[in-house]
Design the sequence.
């Protein structure tokens, strides 16, 4: 966990010292792999500092050689309201102090902040942040991330400023959750625009804010994004680690959330060329998606419908098919279901699934692939996504074996895209 935080965030070594309570020399040895922390009290303290995850005390799960961890529950049980408020203020100052020591907030510090007339966080502030998250997430799904970055960054800069204001006790968890969600949206927008360093900083900040709010649903979603980014960037091992961290307490998640995380497992295993683990993860994801649970899904998980599930699992099968580890029809069936099921509101996802589907059809049914390409190009005409553009470049190469003119048309569309 310590190495993961150090390698994937901009938190300095001194920031980690403050978080974990460990000596700088000890941390250096852990990060370099020279030392493994074995004392349970130090492990507990370090885990608690690293995003409010710690072993559950006084239970069998804390025995040696067992690794069950849980997120910190609110610690104000049994405290009077005034004492609880003071404790939350201390925790919030510590959060801001540690996050501020890294570069997580650098992209936002010089942005003009939106003005407000209140020195204390109000309900309407949270409404504005949540509405911004919904709007920018919808824009990202439909048009891609490249065109929305400046606007969402400005809103995030303002939202982060709220964390340093007076926050009423009953709004504290909601404030951190709202800011975390907007930071997550901002991170994914940056990922889609290939601003990977910015995306990692935003995701790291969003993770800490969600954990500070004890928001398990948001934590899982952010870690899912971090998993998918690392898989996309060629590091499926780290992607798998993030997905596994998100499933630490899957019993607190809704079926679509569990399915979402299991498809991240599948995509990581597929990139690693592990056919059996990929198929097993897809099977588990299918079961989770079809299951019922008493845990409701957050409103913002509404995007994860049958089309999204078909597309995510189809992408994993696509990797196996391209590597000739699994028959193509399985991937084609799921990708076709995604293309047919996505509405215009999810034009980018429809375009990417269509591009992947066409690349398979070009190998088995070129004429059918030709039509799929044209539909994907129609969607891409309104989408600005670096990820989708790269998929198109690969498709242009595949298409050139059968349709030279179409391949040139694809290349021209990419070059003409702003």
Sequence:
């Amino acid at each position: 966990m310590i190495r993961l935080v150090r390698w994937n965030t901009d938190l300095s070594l001194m920031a980690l010292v403050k978080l974990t309570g460990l000596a700088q020399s000890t941390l250096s040895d852990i990060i370099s792999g020279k030392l493994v922390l074995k004392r349970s009290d130090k492990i507990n303290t370090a885990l608690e500092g690293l995003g409010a995850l710690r072993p559950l005390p006084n239970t069998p799960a804390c025995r040696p050689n067992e690794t069950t961890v849980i997120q910190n529950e609110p610690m104000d049980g049994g405290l009077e309201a005034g004492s609880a408020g003071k404790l939350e203020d201390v925790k919030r100052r510590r959060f801001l102090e540690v996050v501020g020591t890294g570069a997580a907030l650098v992209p936002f510090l010089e942005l003009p902040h939106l003005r407000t007339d209140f020195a204390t966080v109000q309900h309407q502030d949270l409404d504005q942040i949540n509405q911004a998250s919904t709007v920018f997430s919808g824009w990202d799904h439909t048009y891609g991330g490249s065109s929305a970055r400046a606007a969402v960054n400005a809103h995030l800069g303002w939202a982060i400023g709220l964390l340093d204001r007076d926050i009423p006790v009953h709004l504290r968890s909601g404030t951190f959750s709202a800011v975390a969600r907007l930071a997550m949206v901002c991170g994914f927008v940056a990922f889609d625009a290939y601003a990977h360093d910015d995306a990692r900083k935003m995701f790291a900040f969003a993770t800490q804010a969600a954990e500070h709010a004890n928001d398990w649903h948001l934590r899982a979603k952010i870690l899912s994004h971090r998993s998918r980014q690392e898989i996309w960037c060629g590091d499926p091992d780290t992607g798998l680690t993030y997905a596994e961290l998100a499933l630490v307490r899957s019993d607190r998640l809704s079926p679509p959330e569990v399915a979402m995380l299991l498809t991240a497992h599948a995509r990581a295993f597929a990139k690693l060329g592990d056919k059996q683990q990929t198929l097993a993860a897809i099977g588990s994801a299918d079961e989770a998606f079809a299951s019922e649970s008493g845990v409701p899904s957050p409103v913002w998980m509404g995007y994860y419908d049958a089309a999204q599930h078909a597309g995510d699992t189809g992408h994993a099968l696509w990797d196996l098919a391209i590597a000739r580890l699994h028959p193509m029809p399985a991937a084609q069936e799921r990708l076709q279901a995604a293309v047919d099921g996505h509405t215009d509101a999810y034009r980018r996802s429809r375009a990417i699934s269509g591009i992947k589907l066409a690349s398979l059809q070009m190998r088995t049914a070129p004429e059918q692939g030709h039509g799929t390409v044209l539909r994907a190009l129609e969607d891409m005409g309104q989408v600005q996504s670096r990820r989708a553009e790269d998929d198109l470049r690969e498709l242009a190469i595949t298409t050139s074996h059968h349709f030279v003119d179409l391949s040139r048309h694809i290349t021209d569309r990419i070059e003409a895209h702003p």
